[in-house]
Design a protein that fits this description.
- It is a single chain.
- The chain is α+β, with helices and mostly antiparallel strands and 340 residues long.
- Helix content is 33%, strand content 28%.
- It has seven helices and 15 strands.
- Strands 1, 6, 7, 8, 9, 10 and 13 form a seven-stranded mixed beta sheet that branches. Strands 4-5-3-2-15-14 form a six-stranded mixed beta sheet, with no helix packed on it.
Length: 340
Amino acid sequence: MRHTIHALFILVCLALGPLHAALAADVAVSRDCFLALGEDPGTRPAVELGTEFDVLSWNIGKASGDGWMRDLAEVGGGIDLAFIQEASVRARIPQALQQPMFPAFAQGYSTPDQQTGVMTLSAGEPAGRCALTAREPWLGTPKATGVTEYLLAGTDDRLLAINVHAVNFEFGLQNFRAQFHNLRNILAAHSGPVILAGDLNTWSRERQELVDAFAAEFGLSSVGFEPDLRSTAFGRALDHIYVRGLRATASSVVPVSSSDHNPLRVRLAAALTVPADYRSGVRDVYIQVCGVGGFKGAAFYCRLPRRWRTRSLPPRRLLAVKKLTFAMYSASRCFPRCPI
């Protein structure tokens, strides 16, 4: 009996070992993604978004359905940002749009013949970008999250754009929750406008409640659609657009037959302020995510002379300041970037 228990224990450890390694790798990637944002784009021609802009979000179904190019050209006419899930590199999706768009691609599932993931399209190159990966527990396949930053005309704020294709095939919520958890340090350190959009696979009450609680924690509100023609599973909408520091002036869902998801389109305008409840709670959130050391590092960084942390500072000197701050105060995996 004892040998049987030992054998079962070894089998469980062997089974969980790769999972633990994958989770540790995901944490490291989340840290690297966090550190990649907020940098000076330098000589790169980063696009600036205006005070109003049009956004599309669509699970395009690997661009395998008949008529997807026609549908994308029609629904995507004049857009400034597009959040595409199940995007296929081979399909050359940007070429289906009438206007030239820069693709920021985050790889998810791939085979020798095909690369798919999430693709965030914009009129020009983003100021910063990175990618995160979650795992489908049953299939062992990756689910991508693309994170991009855009300059905003007339302000020092940046728009944080998060393109999510959420974990789907799971009995519980562990991997689904972890996918959103990996975004917490990024959102906690960003005080400007935010768009979180995509196929969130909210096909159960528990999943929707988790996403709503996560959104509320970071001051995000859901964009409504009337009539609500979003694709559903078990009577619940799967696709969402959440925003902070922005307001929707128009929204629509366009029925299509080229994918099992209908695309969402919204027009967004800059709001006057970030919600007060978010600002009042950001200290507690930052401490929870980064630890007290991380929050002290943020406070120290915010007290530095503005010329030390302006985007015009030479990248080498800016990096030196960041490294100094990190070494002095941040024992956690977070890096302070003035969250308040």
